[in-house]
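#onboarding

Welcome to the new folks! Below is a worked example of what a typical request in this channel looks like: someone posts a single protein sequence, and someone else replies with the predicted structure as tokens. Don't worry about understanding the tokens yet, we'll cover that in week two.

Example request:
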Amino acid sequence: MREKPRKLRRPRILIVTPELNGSNHMGRNGTPGPRAKAGGLADISTLLVDELSDRGIDVRVAMPHFRNLFPDASLSRRLYLCRDREFLYRRSVYDGSQDANRRAALAFQRDVIQNVLPVVKPDIVHCHDWMTGLVPAAAKAMGIKSLFTVHNLHDEITTMAEAEDRGIDTARFWQNLHFGHYPHSYEESRNSNPVSMMASAMNASDHVNTVSPSFLQEMMDGRHIAGWGLCDVLRGKHQYGAASGILNAPDPSCAPEHDMRIAERYGASDHRSGKRKNKLQLQKALGLEVDAKAPMLFWPSRLDPTQKGCGLLAHILYQVVSDYSALGLQVVFVADGPFKPHFDHIVNFHGLQGRVAVRGFEENLSRQAYAASDFVMVPSAYEPCGLAQMVALKYGSLPIVHRTGGLQDTVQHLNAAQHEGNGFVFETHDCGGLRWAIDEAMRFHIRPELEREQEIARIMRQSAEAFSPETTAEAYLNIYEGLSGRTIEEARSETYRPVRAVARASEAA
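Example response:
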């Protein structure tokens, strides 16, 4: 009797991430999944979970149980919450000292390695950033393929002794880790040989990707001091075709045509009237001078002087506002961060309350500012990908950016006469470079209105197509398929016969 062909089960992907932002597939009873967000990692993790789930992939997620951040959520059975007191009472993902965050990361990884991987038995485990850095090494020892995504430069150093004190049995996979110096033996290295979480993940994973092609090249070139120790590992991966750059994509809800958080919805064809109404609404809400023709600059990113370049703007803010007073230039900040008090002081000292508004981050207000503004400032010293400039382009707000990382992959300097480019890009990361780019933006603003309207409409249409979740998901699917050795469609639908049945069929022939 011939045995019936059996269907292969759907490919199972385990996404290990410290952040998630309300996934449609990780909640139950029509409610979104948990929200634990510190940056763009949450958005891309959520996008990936939802896009893959929509395509029929069996997606599971492991993340810390930040009980205070989602106490009443109704959660999917495909979501595995890792419990430890280090993150049970936190009010943000990274809360407290560097030591506390490292302890929390080790507790998270202990639960993934000991409890989640053996239960889920994934075909591929997809890990995100340094908080998951030891998981690919453990997965390799278990025979599980892994992908590691680098979202930022931050790394943490631990030792095997510290990891074992948190309950991780590193003796099972210590050969897959990346040490500060050559490990002659487990015993010799256990207590004092430093282990890089990020480099260990790169070393052990089957594929590594950064969140933009240019950032991958910058890391391999050693252009960022914070990531210099990762250069050799990444170069080795790239040499063997196991490293790539994949651009993130904005949240699908970031589209002015159907964004319920803005005062007036609009598209490329009617952006002029839509942005005008949104600007008037925002000016009234923030106490700015009400002037629909005033050019508006928007700062959407956290006020971090190390990465985001807010110190450059602080040096020139008063002069820029003064020089363009005839146009009524306005500047809006919707952001938190250590540099926020400096901008508050500048506004109060110079009496700029009618021209400059500084507010803490709030999602609805940020969306309204994208819809109201003419230009968005992202003058980062380095930027692995950046989502703000992509969101801005979709809302018809042209970005002012430094040429680095994902910014140079998504923004090209505008040449309105040739109908090319989509923003304003400066090369040298200093006050003069930023001021030059702002001046370029103002030159565009004073061009004939019909010409500006046509260029912005073109840019909005191109951006809606270029920065789509589908494009990003396809790129990750290609990596999954390369790791599994078969296409996702085959894995979803193919049937196979057991070896015994094939043998019998051959004998009968």
